[in-house]
Amino acid sequence: MNNIAVFASGTGTNFKAIFRNIQAGTIPAQICCFITNRPQAGALAFAQEHHIPSYVISPAEFESEEEFGDALLRILRKHDTNWIVLAGFLKKIPDNVVEAFPNRILNIHPALLPAFGGKGMYGMHVHRAVFRSGARVSGATIHLVNQEYDAGPIVMQQAVDIADCRSPEEIAARVLEVEHQLYSRALQKVLTTPFRVEGRRVIFQEP
Length: 207
Ligand code: GAR
Prior knowledge:
Layout: E1 2-7, H1 13-23, E2 29-36, H2 42-49, E3 54-56, H3 65-78, E4 83-86, H4 95-100, E5 105-109, H5 124-133, E6 137-144, E7 154-161, H6 168-192, E8 195-198, E9 201-204
Parallel strand pairs: 1-2, 1-4, 2-3, 4-5
Antiparallel strand pairs: 5-6, 6-7, 8-9
Helix pairs in contact: 1-6, 5-6
Bound molecules: glycinamide ribonucleotide (GAR).
The site of glycinamide ribonucleotide has 16 residues, from helix 1, strand 5 and helix 6.
């Protein structure tokens, strides 16, 4: 069985969509634990309501990134985690965690990477930058996590027409709807189709 640890800092609508698809049997996995850095995160309440072992842990509690990573690794190992799914987790994943889960950490980004990514580009910051840019298309990206912000190999993307959007909020709502579908599709794909990574490319071994 694929044991998935979900990390989220916010409302967790992506987490909820994935949870429902696991329950529906579309994704062959179980959520073994939930980790957040924010005790007030809506995603935490949801995890607890569904009896998912949940942890609140923040880098601020530790003297170094490495110690934060060690604490995360202890939790992840305790639950026999083999995949990590970042669903709006707004803290950097420590290098020792990335090294322990090579090409086994998925992240979602609310734009078409490599555009509108990098440090500080998350949530509404992304949609405001897209709006200001005048781009007529945005979208969602699911990628594997490496040590560089938003630069890991891309698993799946979907474009969203935003030509008629009048505010960053309108863009966010339209992209979020797509995110909810795309994240589950990408997760299902990486769990069921062998793949290899060449540079920044993900190559699926199709039957
Ligand atoms: C999502 O839009 C996700 O793409 C974004 O945070 C939001 C979380 O929403 N992630 C990033 O910006 C990461 N760089 P949710 O809590 O409703 O799933």
